[in-house]
Amino acid sequence: MLKGSIVALSTPFKDDGVNIDTLKKLIEFHNKNKTDGILVLGTTGESPTISDKEREEIIATALSLSKSPVIVGTGTNSTEKTIKMTKKARELGAEYALIITPYYNKPNQEGLYQHFRRVAEAVDIKIIIYNVPSRTGISILPETVAKLAEIKNIVGIKEASGNLKNMTEIIQFTPDEFVLLSGDDFLTLPIMSIGGKGVISVTANIVPDRVHRFTQLCLEGKFTEARKMNYEIYELSMSMFIDTNPIPVKEALNLMGFDMGEPRLPLIRLGEEKREKLKGILKKYGVI
Prior knowledge:
Blueprint (H helix, E strand, L loop, with lengths): L3 E5 L4 E2 L2 E2 L1 H13 L4 E4 L11 H14 L4 E4 L5 H13 L4 E5 L8 H14 L3 E6 L1 H4 L5 H7 L5 E6 L4 H10 L5 E4 L5 H6 L4 E4 L6 H12 L3 H17 L7 H9 L16 H13 L4
Parallel strand pairs: 1-4, 1-10, 4-5, 5-6, 6-7, 7-8, 8-9, 9-10
Antiparallel strand pairs: 2-3
Protein backbone atom coordinates (compact mmCIF):
# COMPACT_ATOMS: atom_id res chain seq x y z
CA MET A 1 0.00 0.00 0.00
CA LEU A 2 1.28 3.47 -0.92
CA LYS A 3 1.28 5.76 2.09
CA GLY A 4 3.08 8.63 3.78
CA SER A 5 4.99 11.37 2.00
CA ILE A 6 5.27 10.94 -1.76
CA VAL A 7 7.15 13.76 -3.43
CA ALA A 8 5.86 15.24 -6.68
CA LEU A 9 9.37 15.62 -8.03
CA SER A 10 10.43 18.74 -9.91
CA THR A 11 12.34 18.02 -13.13
CA PRO A 12 15.79 19.64 -13.52
CA PHE A 13 16.59 21.00 -16.97
CA LYS A 14 19.68 22.16 -18.81
CA ASP A 15 19.91 23.84 -22.20
CA ASP A 16 19.90 20.61 -24.18
CA GLY A 17 17.60 18.39 -22.14
CA VAL A 18 17.04 16.95 -18.69
CA ASN A 19 19.85 17.40 -16.17
CA ILE A 20 20.28 13.75 -15.21
CA ASP A 21 23.13 14.50 -12.78
CA THR A 22 20.86 16.79 -10.77
CA LEU A 23 17.99 14.30 -11.01
CA LYS A 24 20.22 11.69 -9.40
CA LYS A 25 21.12 14.13 -6.61
CA LEU A 26 17.43 14.86 -5.99
CA ILE A 27 16.60 11.17 -5.70
CA GLU A 28 19.50 10.60 -3.28
CA PHE A 29 18.26 13.60 -1.27
CA HIS A 30 14.89 11.86 -0.89
CA ASN A 31 16.47 8.50 -0.14
CA LYS A 32 18.38 10.07 2.75
CA ASN A 33 15.35 11.93 4.09
CA LYS A 34 12.95 8.97 4.22
CA THR A 35 10.57 10.07 1.49
CA ASP A 36 8.01 7.26 1.15
CA GLY A 37 7.58 7.46 -2.62
CA ILE A 38 8.56 9.46 -5.69
CA LEU A 39 6.25 10.70 -8.44
CA VAL A 40 8.02 11.61 -11.66
CA LEU A 41 6.44 13.31 -14.67
CA GLY A 42 3.55 14.83 -12.76
CA THR A 43 2.35 18.42 -12.99
CA THR A 44 5.22 19.54 -10.75
CA GLY A 45 7.57 17.68 -13.09
CA GLU A 46 6.38 19.75 -16.09
CA SER A 47 5.32 16.62 -17.96
CA PRO A 48 3.58 18.42 -20.87
CA THR A 49 6.91 19.88 -22.02
CA ILE A 50 9.00 16.70 -21.86
CA SER A 51 9.87 14.63 -24.94
CA ASP A 52 9.43 10.87 -25.21
CA LYS A 53 13.19 10.32 -25.03
CA GLU A 54 13.46 12.51 -21.93
CA ARG A 55 10.56 10.65 -20.32
CA GLU A 56 12.39 7.36 -20.73
CA GLU A 57 15.57 8.82 -19.22
CA ILE A 58 13.69 10.17 -16.22
CA ILE A 59 11.77 6.95 -15.59
CA ALA A 60 14.87 4.75 -15.91
CA THR A 61 16.89 6.97 -13.59
CA ALA A 62 14.20 7.09 -10.92
CA LEU A 63 13.60 3.34 -11.02
CA SER A 64 17.31 2.56 -10.78
CA LEU A 65 18.05 4.85 -7.82
CA SER A 66 14.95 5.31 -5.67
CA LYS A 67 14.73 3.23 -2.50
CA SER A 68 10.98 3.86 -2.31
CA PRO A 69 8.15 3.18 -4.79
CA VAL A 70 8.19 5.19 -8.01
CA ILE A 71 4.97 6.44 -9.60
CA VAL A 72 5.05 7.63 -13.21
CA GLY A 73 2.65 10.23 -14.55
CA THR A 74 1.29 8.85 -17.83
CA GLY A 75 -2.11 10.50 -18.23
CA THR A 76 -3.24 12.60 -21.19
CA ASN A 77 -6.59 13.67 -22.64
CA SER A 78 -6.38 10.89 -25.23
CA THR A 79 -7.20 7.36 -24.12
CA GLU A 80 -5.04 5.73 -26.79
CA LYS A 81 -2.06 8.00 -26.09
CA THR A 82 -2.44 7.34 -22.37
CA ILE A 83 -2.36 3.59 -23.03
CA LYS A 84 0.78 4.00 -25.15
CA MET A 85 2.58 6.07 -22.52
CA THR A 86 1.50 3.76 -19.70
CA LYS A 87 2.70 0.71 -21.63
CA LYS A 88 6.10 2.34 -22.12
CA ALA A 89 6.37 3.10 -18.40
CA ARG A 90 5.52 -0.52 -17.63
CA GLU A 91 8.09 -1.79 -20.14
CA LEU A 92 10.71 0.28 -18.34
CA GLY A 93 9.78 -1.39 -15.04
CA ALA A 94 7.29 0.98 -13.41
CA GLU A 95 4.77 -0.60 -11.04
CA TYR A 96 2.57 2.47 -10.58
CA ALA A 97 1.06 5.00 -12.99
CA LEU A 98 -0.66 8.25 -12.05
CA ILE A 99 -3.35 9.00 -14.62
CA ILE A 100 -5.07 12.36 -14.65
CA THR A 101 -8.73 12.76 -15.60
CA PRO A 102 -8.78 13.86 -19.27
CA TYR A 103 -8.54 17.64 -19.53
CA TYR A 104 -10.11 20.02 -22.08
CA ASN A 105 -12.32 17.29 -23.58
CA LYS A 106 -14.61 17.45 -20.48
CA PRO A 107 -15.92 13.86 -20.62
CA ASN A 108 -19.01 12.93 -18.61
CA GLN A 109 -18.83 10.37 -15.79
CA GLU A 110 -19.40 7.40 -18.10
CA GLY A 111 -16.63 8.67 -20.37
CA LEU A 112 -14.30 8.94 -17.38
CA TYR A 113 -15.16 5.41 -16.33
CA GLN A 114 -14.55 4.02 -19.81
CA HIS A 115 -11.25 5.91 -20.12
CA PHE A 116 -9.78 4.47 -16.93
CA ARG A 117 -11.28 1.02 -17.55
CA ARG A 118 -9.73 0.84 -21.00
CA VAL A 119 -6.28 1.81 -19.71
CA ALA A 120 -6.50 -0.64 -16.80
CA GLU A 121 -7.43 -3.48 -19.15
CA ALA A 122 -4.66 -2.63 -21.61
CA VAL A 123 -1.75 -2.37 -19.18
CA ASP A 124 -0.85 -4.58 -16.23
CA ILE A 125 0.18 -1.75 -13.92
CA LYS A 126 -1.20 -0.33 -10.68
CA ILE A 127 -3.18 2.80 -11.50
CA ILE A 128 -3.78 5.84 -9.33
CA ILE A 129 -6.50 8.19 -10.56
CA TYR A 130 -5.62 11.88 -10.39
CA ASN A 131 -8.52 14.26 -9.75
CA VAL A 132 -7.59 17.94 -10.05
CA PRO A 133 -10.56 19.86 -11.47
CA SER A 134 -8.83 23.26 -11.15
CA ARG A 135 -6.53 22.15 -13.98
CA THR A 136 -8.77 19.80 -15.96
CA GLY A 137 -12.22 21.42 -15.83
CA ILE A 138 -13.84 18.13 -14.74
CA SER A 139 -14.17 16.24 -11.45
CA ILE A 140 -14.60 12.52 -11.08
CA LEU A 141 -17.44 11.70 -8.68
CA PRO A 142 -17.30 9.26 -5.73
CA GLU A 143 -19.68 6.80 -7.36
CA THR A 144 -17.49 6.67 -10.48
CA VAL A 145 -14.40 6.12 -8.34
CA ALA A 146 -16.18 3.36 -6.43
CA LYS A 147 -17.05 1.64 -9.69
CA LEU A 148 -13.46 1.92 -10.91
CA ALA A 149 -12.15 0.57 -7.60
CA GLU A 150 -13.75 -2.75 -8.52
CA ILE A 151 -11.08 -3.13 -11.23
CA LYS A 152 -8.19 -4.97 -9.61
CA ASN A 153 -5.32 -2.79 -10.83
CA ILE A 154 -6.96 0.57 -10.06
CA VAL A 155 -5.59 0.93 -6.55
CA GLY A 156 -6.05 4.54 -5.45
CA ILE A 157 -6.73 8.18 -6.14
CA LYS A 158 -4.79 11.40 -5.73
CA GLU A 159 -7.46 13.89 -4.67
CA ALA A 160 -6.89 17.59 -5.32
CA SER A 161 -10.50 18.71 -5.65
CA GLY A 162 -10.66 20.25 -2.18
CA ASN A 163 -14.03 18.55 -1.69
CA LEU A 164 -13.83 16.72 1.65
CA LYS A 165 -17.40 15.49 1.30
CA ASN A 166 -16.56 13.66 -1.89
CA MET A 167 -13.33 12.33 -0.40
CA THR A 168 -15.21 10.99 2.62
CA GLU A 169 -17.61 9.19 0.29
CA ILE A 170 -14.74 7.76 -1.77
CA ILE A 171 -13.22 6.26 1.39
CA GLN A 172 -16.63 5.03 2.50
CA PHE A 173 -17.57 3.42 -0.83
CA THR A 174 -14.25 1.81 -1.82
CA PRO A 175 -12.44 -1.27 -0.41
CA ASP A 176 -10.06 -0.82 2.53
CA GLU A 177 -7.05 -1.49 0.30
CA PHE A 178 -8.02 1.36 -2.07
CA VAL A 179 -5.79 4.32 -1.14
CA LEU A 180 -6.83 7.97 -1.08
CA LEU A 181 -3.88 10.38 -1.15
CA SER A 182 -4.01 14.13 -0.68
CA GLY A 183 -3.03 16.12 -3.73
CA ASP A 184 -2.94 19.38 -1.79
CA ASP A 185 -0.36 20.11 0.92
CA PHE A 186 -2.76 22.44 2.72
CA LEU A 187 -5.44 19.78 3.09
CA THR A 188 -3.29 16.80 4.04
CA LEU A 189 -4.17 17.02 7.75
CA PRO A 190 -7.98 16.93 7.31
CA ILE A 191 -7.72 14.39 4.49
CA MET A 192 -5.67 12.03 6.61
CA SER A 193 -8.01 12.58 9.55
CA ILE A 194 -10.90 11.13 7.50
CA GLY A 195 -8.88 8.14 6.32
CA GLY A 196 -6.43 9.34 3.67
CA LYS A 197 -3.11 7.52 3.70
CA GLY A 198 -0.69 10.27 2.76
CA VAL A 199 0.10 13.05 0.33
CA ILE A 200 1.64 13.53 -3.08
CA SER A 201 3.45 16.67 -2.03
CA VAL A 202 5.08 19.72 -3.57
CA THR A 203 6.46 20.86 -0.20
CA ALA A 204 8.30 17.54 0.20
CA ASN A 205 10.68 18.70 -2.53
CA ILE A 206 12.04 21.23 -0.04
CA VAL A 207 11.67 19.62 3.42
CA PRO A 208 11.22 15.90 2.77
CA ASP A 209 12.15 14.92 6.33
CA ARG A 210 9.47 17.16 7.84
CA VAL A 211 6.71 16.08 5.47
CA HIS A 212 7.61 12.45 6.11
CA ARG A 213 7.44 12.97 9.87
CA PHE A 214 4.17 14.87 9.58
CA THR A 215 2.47 12.11 7.60
CA GLN A 216 3.81 9.47 9.98
CA LEU A 217 2.21 11.28 12.90
CA CYS A 218 -1.10 11.25 11.03
CA LEU A 219 -0.79 7.56 10.20
CA GLU A 220 -0.10 6.84 13.87
CA GLY A 221 -3.22 8.78 14.89
CA LYS A 222 -1.18 11.44 16.71
CA PHE A 223 -3.23 14.31 15.36
CA THR A 224 -2.46 16.79 18.15
CA GLU A 225 1.24 16.59 17.30
CA ALA A 226 0.49 16.50 13.58
CA ARG A 227 -1.66 19.63 13.83
CA LYS A 228 1.18 21.47 15.54
CA MET A 229 3.63 20.38 12.85
CA ASN A 230 1.17 21.34 10.12
CA TYR A 231 1.14 24.91 11.42
CA GLU A 232 4.94 24.88 11.62
CA ILE A 233 5.33 24.13 7.90
CA TYR A 234 2.25 26.04 6.71
CA GLU A 235 4.07 29.21 5.61
CA LEU A 236 6.65 27.18 3.73
CA SER A 237 3.90 25.26 1.94
CA MET A 238 2.19 28.57 1.11
CA SER A 239 5.42 29.83 -0.46
CA MET A 240 5.37 26.95 -2.96
CA PHE A 241 2.24 28.48 -4.47
CA ILE A 242 3.09 32.19 -4.66
CA ASP A 243 3.05 31.61 -8.42
CA THR A 244 1.90 28.78 -10.68
CA ASN A 245 3.26 25.41 -9.58
CA PRO A 246 6.05 24.39 -10.29
CA ILE A 247 7.63 27.83 -10.76
CA PRO A 248 8.27 28.52 -7.02
CA VAL A 249 9.45 25.01 -6.08
CA LYS A 250 11.96 24.99 -8.92
CA GLU A 251 13.28 28.38 -7.78
CA ALA A 252 13.49 27.11 -4.19
CA LEU A 253 15.53 24.09 -5.26
CA ASN A 254 17.87 26.35 -7.22
CA LEU A 255 18.33 28.47 -4.09
CA MET A 256 19.07 25.30 -2.14
CA GLY A 257 21.97 24.54 -4.47
CA PHE A 258 20.39 22.07 -6.88
CA ASP A 259 21.08 22.93 -10.53
CA MET A 260 17.45 22.88 -11.69
CA GLY A 261 17.62 25.35 -14.54
CA GLU A 262 14.50 27.31 -15.46
CA PRO A 263 10.94 26.15 -16.14
CA ARG A 264 10.14 25.43 -19.76
CA LEU A 265 7.85 27.72 -21.68
CA PRO A 266 5.05 28.57 -21.38
CA LEU A 267 6.11 28.70 -17.70
CA ILE A 268 8.73 31.31 -16.84
CA ARG A 269 11.12 31.92 -13.95
CA LEU A 270 9.84 33.44 -10.72
CA GLY A 271 9.90 37.25 -10.72
CA GLU A 272 12.42 39.12 -8.59
CA GLU A 273 9.97 40.42 -5.98
CA LYS A 274 8.50 36.96 -5.37
CA ARG A 275 11.97 35.44 -5.48
CA GLU A 276 13.10 37.67 -2.61
CA LYS A 277 9.99 36.78 -0.62
CA LEU A 278 10.62 33.09 -1.22
CA LYS A 279 14.27 33.47 -0.27
CA GLY A 280 13.30 35.08 3.04
CA ILE A 281 10.92 32.22 3.91
CA LEU A 282 13.51 29.57 3.03
CA LYS A 283 16.02 31.33 5.29
CA LYS A 284 13.45 31.50 8.10
CA TYR A 285 12.99 27.72 7.87
CA GLY A 286 16.74 27.08 7.75
CA VAL A 287 16.53 25.55 4.28
CA ILE A 288 19.16 27.92 2.87
